Amino acid sequence: MWVGGYWLGLNDIDAPNTFVYTNGDADNYQAWAPGQPLSFDPYNCVQIRADGKWLTGRCDQVSNFFCQMKRKEDAVF
């Protein structure tokens, strides 16, 4: 299993407590840890912990991240 938190590409930078992914998708699934999300700056970006729970963190912190890629047959060229 991986260690530490990973950025999900989810944030509420544009509108407090309205979390969206960097590609503009809404967060139709949520798995917040107890006491989360924090609703004040600078805690605007979302990380996932090893237990699968989400927490808000500072967007300027360096962290691991997940990257979503299109399958080859779905790619647009």
Outline the structure in words.
The chain has 77 residues and is mainly beta. Helices cover 0% and strands 27% of the residues. The protein is built from no helices and 5 strands. It has strands at residues 6-11, 20-21, 43-48, 54-58, 64-65. Strands 1, 2, 3, 4 and 5 form a 5-stranded mixed sheet that branches. The mean pLDDT is 84.
Tell me briefly what this model is.
This protein is mainly beta.
Topology:
Blueprint: E1 6-11, E2 20-21, E3 43-48, E4 54-58, E5 64-65
Parallel strand pairs: 1-5
Antiparallel strand pairs: 1-2, 1-3, 3-4
The computed structural class is mainly beta
- Oligomeric state: single chain
Low-confidence stretches: none
DSSP helical segment count: 0
Secondary-structure element order, as H and E? EEEEE
Overall 3D geometry? globular
Rg, alpha carbons:
13 Å
Indicate the mean pLDDT: 84
Give the beta-strand count.
5
Biggest sheet character: 5 strands, mixed
* Percentage of residues in strands: 25-35%
Query: Helicity level, as a percent range?
Result: under 10%
How many angstroms separate the termini? 35 Å
